[in-house]
Amino acid sequence: VQFVESGGGLVRPGESLRLSCAASGFTLVNYTVSWVRQAPGKGLEWVSQVNAGSGSTGVADSVKARFTISRDNAKNTLYLQMNNLKPEDTAVYYCTMGSVWGQGTQVTVSS
Fold first, then answer.
1. Residue 42 burial (CB < 10 Å; 0-12/13-18/19+)?
2. Does the structure show a pLDDT above 90 at 100?
3. Phi, psi at 22, each rounded to 5°
4. What gap in Å lies between CA 13 and CA 10, rounded to an integer?
5. Per-residue pLDDT for 54 more than 90?
6. Between vectors from CA 104 to CA 49 and to CA 55, what angle results, nearest 5°?
7. Engineered SS bond to 35: which of 3, 42, 47, 82, CB 3.0-4.6 Å?
8. 95: closest CA among 7, 22, 40?
9. Which pairing describes strands 105-109 and 91-97: parallel, antiparallel, or unpaired?
10. Residue by residue, what is the 3-state secondary structure of the chain?
11. pLDDT grade for 37, boundaries at 50, 70 and 90
12. Confidence class of residue 55 from pLDDT cuts 50, 70 and 90?
């Protein structure tokens, strides 16, 4: 059971990125999975989640209207579309399900 995140990088304020989280060893649709981030020198912050089964979603107020979570059941992959990125979005982004965590992908927003 593992996640592999990808899609991070260095972008300028206002630009976009799409993060991917490929799941293996289990079927993503059967579990609630979250994106969590950790900014430099700060604690973990929940960003968004997609719920098991129905695929209903939740998103943190800090990124609402800019970030969108989605799930491709055929590819067993979770996505996080991030638009209008801000410097305060700089962090390592992880996908997680309970005690299972990916290795993270770095997002840096800087001019």
1. exposed
2. yes
3. -85, 125
4. 10
5. no
6. 20
7. 47
8. 22
9. antiparallel
10. CEEEEECCEEECCCCCEEEEEEEECCCHHHCCEEEEEECCCCCEEEEEEECCCCCCEEECCCCCCCEEEEEECCCCEEEEEECCCCHHHCEEEEEEECCEECCCEEEEECC
11. very high
12. confident
Length of the chain counted residue by residue: 111
Alpha carbons 57 and 73: distance in angstroms, whole number: 15
Tokens 């649709």 map to which residue?
Answer: 29
The tokens describing 44, both together, are 């973990």
Question: Which two tokens mark 9?
Answer: 């990088």
